[in-house]
Specification:
The chain is mainly alpha-helical and 305 residues long. It has twelve helices and no strands. Helix 3 crosses helix 7 and helix 7 packs antiparallel against helix 8.
Length: 305
């Protein structure tokens, strides 16, 4: 009589041991949730993240000093308009052509992708979060939320600082209700900025070059390009539709300024677009560049370290 042996055919099944739950496939939603948690833990675990956010918070508290310097000591009730307050909170200062907060978030925005593609941690990330597309989508969502949340906190701290300074100096408070919408646009802008940072790192596969590009393009290159395009027949005014011209128009509602100040404000912004279409255009640019970054991230091989 032959002893029983295990059936070697594919029809054989393995019964889980007692107390062991059967394995279940991970859904895309669950994989994405895990990837987002992975990206957030990685970002939160870096000391540089909290140093940069701390510096941004301290500088936001100093916004009230900017308002104090703009007050006229000879007036009993120095007027501070809602538009002027929104510009102080958003730009600090406007002449830089990009919000000052952008320079602090450059490090946070470029770090996650550069760590993967430049420093050789990509394969570890892809294995941990179940794929390249999932990893990139998680980076985008976490980056956007961190950028938007940082801007919201900066705007709130700046508003509180300014309100305290105005109350101490005997100045009239602006209509704070009219500052809320510009602050929300500011938060959306900074979320888009984080997406632009990580997308450009994916496209260029470098960290230094995208940083230089994002600093120089809105400050110099786009202004020169807009001026050159404006000299071509039929392209007059096209410079106002370029990415950061639309971004500046998104942040600055020129129509809220007094009539005498509008020409100067419009010259600084460099676009005749109203805030609503400018917001849509800037978000469209961001979505297209983020999609191109996804294509590059999912197709390029990782370095070995």
């Amino acid at each position: 009589m032959r002893s029983p042996v295990a059936d070697p055919s594919p029809r054989a099944t393995v019964t889980p041991d007692a107390g062991t739950a059967p394995l279940t496939p991970v859904t895309r939603a669950e994989a994405f949730r895990r990837a987002c948690r992975y990206e957030w833990r990685h970002l939160a675990g870096l000391r540089s993240t909290w140093v940069l956010l701390g510096v941004a918070g301290v500088l936001s508290l100093l916004t009230g000093v900017t308002v104090l310097l703009d007050l006229d000591p000879g007036e009993v009730e120095p007027p501070v308009t809602a538009a002027a307050m929104a510009d102080v909170i958003t730009w600090a200062p406007l002449a830089t052509q990009v919000p000052a907060l952008c320079f602090f978030l450059l490090v946070l925005g470029t770090g996650p992708v550069s760590t993967d593609l430049v420093r050789g941690a990509a394969r570890t990330t892809w294995l941990a979060v179940n794929g390249r597309g999932t990893a990139y989508a998680a980076k985008c969502l976490v980056g956007f939320l961190v950028g938007a949340a940082t801007a919201s906190a900066s705007a709130l701290l700046g508003a509180l600082s300014s309100a305290l300074v105005l109350a101490t100096a005997g100045g009239a408070q602006p209509e704070w209700g009219r500052v809320v919408v510009p602050a929300l646009r500011f938060s959306l802008w900074m979320g888009c900025w984080a997406l632009l940072c990580l997308a450009l790192v994916s496209l260029i596969r470098s960290r230094i070059v995208p940083v230089l590009f994002l600093c120089m393009w809105p400050l110099i290159v786009e202004r020169l390009l807009g001026g050159l395009l404006g000299r071509l027949p039929g392209l007059d005014g096209v410079g106002g539709w370029l990415p950061f011209a639309a971004g500046r128009a998104m942040l600055t509602d020129v129509s809220a300024y007094p009539a005498d100040d509008r020409p100067f404000a419009r010259a600084l912004v460099g676009s005749d677009l109203a805030t609503a279409p400018a917001t849509g255009l800037f978000c469209l640019y961001t979505a297209l560049i983020a999609a191109a970054g996804c294509w590059a991230y999912c197709r390029r091989d990782a370095t070995s370290g």
